[in-house]
Amino acid sequence: MGNHKSEIRRRNVDKILLAAEQVFAEKGYAGTAMADIAEQAGLPRSNLHYYFNTKDDLYRAVLLGLLEVWKQDALCFEMYDDPRVVLSSYIRAKMNHSRSRAHGSKVWADEIIHGAPMLGASLDDSLYNWAKMKEAKIRQWVDDKRILAVEPSALLYMIWASTQHYADFSHQVAILNDHQALSDMQFERALQTVTGVILRGIGLEP
């Protein structure tokens, strides 16, 4: 019985968070009401308040959930040692989430552009050490002459910018693609291009 209730709770929370991503992305934090999110989720407004007391709580949960998704994307840094495998896997994961979680990426970008007013100092705790560990691995590849000399943080920023472009500027991408979203084939070509340019830039063949 307890497991069944836990499963219902998990499904409802996931549904609310995904709905909130879309509404926050489309209307912005200030322009979003809890009623908008409830409507998007297909749930009574009272259900939202059962799981999240305030809009601030829900917005913060969306942001922290996104950060966890992106940390999962980077698990390849811990699972593998080959820079080609690690970076190819990371870029693919980031690109795929830019496609499947485009609204979330826009919410995150808006929070960071405005100086992380909701996350505040907690962003340092969540992001700083995580990023420094990734930089340390890249620096080790450089020291071992497995890749060309590169500033590790700049390489990470380049990957983030290139992959999240397809989420944060999806409207622009569609306009330049004859007002259509990229097809599966076009998206795969874009992914291969981003991967190839970055790998070749550090002396690796895709």
From TrEMBL:
<dbReference type="InterPro" id="IPR001647">
    <property type="entry name" value="HTH_TetR"/>
</dbReference>
<dbReference type="Pfam" id="PF08362">
    <property type="entry name" value="TetR_C_3"/>
</dbReference>
<dbReference type="InterPro" id="IPR013573">
    <property type="entry name" value="Tscrpt_reg_YcdC_C"/>
</dbReference>
<dbReference type="Pfam" id="PF00440">
    <property type="entry name" value="TetR_N"/>
</dbReference>
<protein>
    <submittedName>
        <fullName>Transcriptional regulator, TetR family</fullName>
    </submittedName>
</protein>
<dbReference type="InterPro" id="IPR050109">
    <property type="entry name" value="HTH-type_TetR-like_transc_reg"/>
</dbReference>
<dbReference type="GO" id="GO:0000976">
    <property type="term" value="F:transcription cis-regulatory region binding"/>
</dbReference>
<dbReference type="GO" id="GO:0045892">
    <property type="term" value="P:negative regulation of DNA-templated transcription"/>
</dbReference>
<dbReference type="InterPro" id="IPR036271">
    <property type="entry name" value="Tet_transcr_reg_TetR-rel_C_sf"/>
</dbReference>
<feature type="domain" description="HTH tetR-type">
    <location>
        <begin position="10"/>
        <end position="70"/>
    </location>
</feature>
<keyword id="KW-0238">DNA-binding</keyword>
<dbReference type="InterPro" id="IPR009057">
    <property type="entry name" value="Homeodomain-like_sf"/>
</dbReference>
<dbReference type="GO" id="GO:0003700">
    <property type="term" value="F:DNA-binding transcription factor activity"/>
</dbReference>
<feature type="DNA-binding region" description="H-T-H motif">
    <location>
        <begin position="33"/>
        <end position="52"/>
    </location>
</feature>
